[in-house]
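Lab notebook: predicted structure, single chain.

Context: the supervisor wants predicted structures on file for every construct in the current expression panel, including those that have not yet been purified. This is the next one on the list. No modifications to the sequence; it matches the entry in the shared construct table.
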Amino acid sequence: MGVLSIKRTLSIALLAVLVLAAVGCGEEEKGPFRIGVMESVTGAGETYGTVAVQSKQLAVDEINAAGGINGRMLELIVEDSKCNAQDAITAYNKLTDVDEVKIILGTSCSGAMLGAAPLAEKEGVVMFSGLATNPDIAEAGDYIFRTSLSDATVGVDTGNVLWADGIHDLATINESTDYAEGVRRTTTAQFEKLGGHIVAAESYPTDTTDFRTQLTKLLNANPDAIHVASQAEASGGTIIKQLRELGYDGPIYADVVPIGTTALEIAGEAATGVKAITPDLDPANAKAQEVLAAFKKKYDYVTLPWFLGSAYDNVYITAECLKETGDDQDADGFRDCLYDITWSGTIGVDYSFDEKGEVVGLSNAVLEVLPVAERTEENGGYRVLGAAPTS
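Prediction complete. Output recorded below exactly as produced.
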């Protein structure tokens, strides 16, 4: 073989290597978008944390089955934040230091969100929650967003409902967590602003299973009504059950947690007539009904449908912003996309985010728990009385 032929052969071989290298780089660039998830798979928020993870995975499976995002698959890396600040920080550090994610969906619980949010804000990592509601999250920073309505809104609406229902003397009991305390604090502030009186108030640690001592103190104050704010469905359901066992037959008010499927199973008939002030999926929203049906088909149960829908929407909003940025490491671009986006999905139509990352365009409803014989998977165990009064 001549020198020219050898040079030509080497040139062709080198070209082939370069082409293969380019193809290899292209394949690497077409790897999945990797997004972190922090939810309370265990702990006080286990029921809704689990439903949030499952709902997110349902959305991811749909997106990937439809071809992904610009041809790239979406992958979730799930860590258990266990509904508390310390474990949330551990989960956050693992996702950011080991998995090197820059976008995290979660958390379920307000305490967990408030624990990890300062780190995310300092390091420029987006945290996007569908469930955490404590009012202080609104001040957590420029990278913190949520589709869940703040307890400030829930509290104002609950205070308005109490006053409109003719309640003047109120007793409260809440779990000692950031979420439940936020609900209690904002509710009583609005109720007192309208002229109501708090005649008794009790709180309890998360590991409490018998509430009779605290409830007896509340009943001794002879309230017109009792407001329950629990972090866990188990405690919410047990409180309602024990209130009735102690002979209380007056009105009970709550947020979303004490009317979840698990809570209602525990409370049984005792929960009949309980009023909860919370966002709810619109029966006329075809997307919402489609998602509930898909979730039921995949997991064979449905609970806390609004939380389910909020977690589901978070994934589709994430997919839309990844489609725009094309980079799961571009937290700033993702943040800017969230600020600019207007979304119609499972939990509402044309909602968006304000300058603090708070959701705008959603509202609360007043729900009333039905008798056991009338509770079904379709109605969630309650009926919608109407929109919560704003004044």
